[in-house]
Amino acid sequence: MPPKKAAASEKKTLLGRPSNNLKIGIVGLPNVGKSSFFNALSETDLGKAANFPYATINPEEARIPVPDVRFEWLCDVYKPASRVPAFLTCIDIAGLTAGASTGAGLGNSFLSHVRAVDGIFQVIRAFDDAEVIHVEGDVDPLRDMEIIQTELRLKDIEWVEKALDNLKKSGRSLGSNSLADKAKKEEIAVVEKILKVLTVENKDIRKADWNNKEIDVVNGLSLLTAKPVTYLVNLSEKDYIRKKNKWLPKIKNWIDTNNPGDPLIPFSVALEERLVVMSPEEKKEEETKVGATSALGKITQAGYSSLDLIRYFTCGPDEVRAWTIRKGTKAPQAAGVIHSDFENKFVCGEIMSYEDLKEYGSEASVKAAGKLRQQGKPYEMIDGDIAYWKAGG
Question: Of 134, 147, 214, 318, which has fewest CB within 10 angstroms of its CB?
Fold first, then answer.
C-alpha cells in the first residue's frame, strides 16, 4: 500500500531542541580568528540598545543583541524607560584539529561542546599572514572545511552505531504484535536510515529529508551534523573592502556541492577589531572612509534565523522588549516565555502586527481600523507580532 499522504495541516517538526533558549557555537580550526571574532562580537552592542547593561555570562559565552529596525522604531514611538532587544547566545569553542573524533587534540571536549550548542558559526580562514601560523601548515579553506565536516560526521557515525547496537540488543526478543514492539522496530528502522545518510549517502543529517516521526528520533540523538551551519569566511581587511578573494568562489562552490543552502558570509576580523573600539560616530566615519561596513549585525541575524527563531514584542512606556520564540510557537507558550503563570492561566492575547502599527501610527488607530485581534490558544505567533496577554487570576 502506498504511504498515506501527510495531512496538509500537519506541521513540520523542527530539527533540534524544542526550546526558545538556543545557543550557537563558534567552530573552526585553531588560529582562524574564532576568539578574535567572538571578542569583537561580544564587546559590541551593534550600535543598538546602548542603555542595556551588557551581559557576558562567562569568558566563553556572551549574549549578543540582534539588530532589528522594528525594535528601534518601537522604541522611538513608545520612548520606554527600558529597552530589551532580542539576544543570540554565542559560545566560543576551542579549535578543532584533524582526528578530533578519535580524541586527538582537545577532541572529546571540543565535540561535547559542539553537542551542547544548537547551531554552528563555522569560521574559515581565507587570508595569508606569516605572523599567524596555520595548524595544517598552509592556508587552504577547502581542506579546513573538509576536516571539520569529516570529524563531525565521524563522531555522529560512532554515536549512531552505538545507539543502533543498543536498540538491537534490547530489541532481540521483539514479537510483532504489541504497539511497543512495533514502535521499537520503527525506531530501529529510522536509526538505520540515519546511519545510511551519514555513511552511504555521505550527507550531513540536516541535508536529508525527514518526516516528523523520523525527526523525533533524530532529535533524540543530538547529532552534530543535524545542527544548522552558517559559514563565516574570515578575509584580510583589504580583500573584504574590495570584495575579492581567490578562495571565495571555491568556498561557495564547496558549500553548493556539499551543503547546498547553507549561508556564506564573508567578513574581516581585522576590520571588526578596529571598528569595535570606536564610538558610533567614529565607526560610521571609518566605514564611510574605507567603503565597507561591519558584518557583525548581519552575522548575528543569520545565526538567529538559522535556529528558526523569531520574536514578538511587548510595548509600553515602561519597557519595549523583544521576546525570542521558535517558529510555530502557539500563543500560550509564547506568553509563558514571560512568566509561566501567563501560560498556565492563559485567557487570550490582544495582538497587532508591527506592520499595522507602523501603517496606522498608534494603537488607538490600529484598534479603530479593526486590526487589533483577540487570539486564543490555537493561535500561532508570527514574527513581529505585538502582544498584550490576558491571564486568569
Answer: 318
